[in-house]
Amino acid sequence: MTSQRRVTLQDIADQLGITKMTVSRYLRDPQKVAEKTRVRIAQAIESTGYIQNRVPAMLSKSSSKAIGIVVPSLSNQVFAELVQGIETITRQQGFSTLIAHTGYDPLTEEEQVAVLLSYQVDALILTQTDHTLRTRKMLVAAGLPVAETMELPVEPIDIAVGLDHIAAATAATRRMIDAGRKSIVYLAARLDTRTLLRQRGYEQAMKHAGLKPLTVSTSAHSSFTTGSSLMQQAFQQSPGLDGVFCTNDDLAVGVMLYCADNGKTVPEDVAVVGYNGLDVGQAMRPKLTSVVTPRYRIGEVSADLLIKRIQGETPATSYVDVGFSFTDGATDRNHV
User: Fold this and answer.
1) What is the pLDDT of residues 240-255, one digit of tens each?
2) Helix, strand, coil shares, percent, the chain, to 5
3) Sign (positive/negative) of CA torsion 100, 103, 107, 109?
4) pTM as predicted
5) Distance between CA 127 and CA 151 in Å, rounded?
6) Mean of the per-residue pLDDT values for the chain?
7) Which among 48, 85, 187, 276 has the fewest CB atoms less than 10 Å away?
8) What is the residue extent of each domain of the chain?
């Protein structure tokens, strides 16, 4: 394939017989250019495949009109919905997004934050709170708005938008305890900060009820097969278990599949509660009872607060608990 020279602003101007300044003005604010000229410029951009070079504008102005987003996974539906919520707001306000992922590794997050800052982003949205010291120093030195999302750190860097995972896990466990379950196990995978917060909530609920907590965990990533494997281990350690709280819906679906394959009925023999309220749980029979985490809303609120800060406004709050709810599931009901 022959390499071709990139189309420039001057090329568009020469083709149309207008000044480069007019084309530049159109790109900044089309309404400042006469309608007939706007149409001609738009057609020229379409036909030539012109790509705007934003670097000069970024260097000459205080705003790049871009927000960086750092997520731990690009394949996880949880973070896909968060990004969708963010981009609903950024598109409305004329901002672009740059997305990087970390694989749940704080050192990789450090690298990705450095890269995004080098692109002069106006703000950052982070989805982890376990940052390296260098990451924190870079964020402080950059002096730009930062939103930590998905959870509510005790000492946020700047803005925090998320939910109380300890409270959500406590409520999820209490549902089964109130339904008469006595031997409830917590299944955990990957062991990131949110998984550990949920474990704390589970343990608090169990101890408050005078019951013995038991966590069966793995550092591997979540999947249906991981959930099935952990459930097998749970039965080996606690043959009389009658309830399972899972750190996410992937594990919970794996638990339900394991029960179906091993003569256990849900919820009569084993109650199951998942986390995140994913669609896959609602496709199960019976429908999975799960904690609903409003990721889309978290994204919207985070982006809105950041853009207000970028534009010089002072939001009423920089610490937002979006709360949680439960799906209309049937896997945690009492014995029939």
Assistant:
1) 999 999 999 999 999 9
2) 45, 15, 35
3) positive
4) 0.82
5) 8
6) 92
7) 48
8) 9-53, 64-163+295-324, 165-292
What's the CATH code, domain 165-292? 3.40.50.2300
Q: Where are the beta strands (DSSP E) in 58-183?
A: 66-71, 96-101, 123-126, 146-151, 159-163
Q: Which residue has the tokens 């920089």?
A: 318
**Is residue 234 within 8 Å of residue 187, measured between CB atoms?**
yes
SS (H, E, C) 165-210: HHHHHHHHHHHHHHCCCCCEEEEEECCCHHHHHHHHHHHHHHHHCC
Q: Does domain 64-163+295-324 have CATH number 3.40.50.2300?
A: yes
Q: Predicted confidence band at 169 (pLDDT cuts at 50, 70, 90)?
A: very high
Token reading at 288: 């999975």
| Tokens found for residue 8 | 């420039």
Domains 64-163+295-324 and 165-292 agree in fold: yes
Structure tokens at 61: 């102005």
Q: Convert the pLDDT of each residue in 38-68 to its tens digit.
A: 999 989 888 887 777 655 555 555 567 999 9
Paired tokens of 191: 């062991």
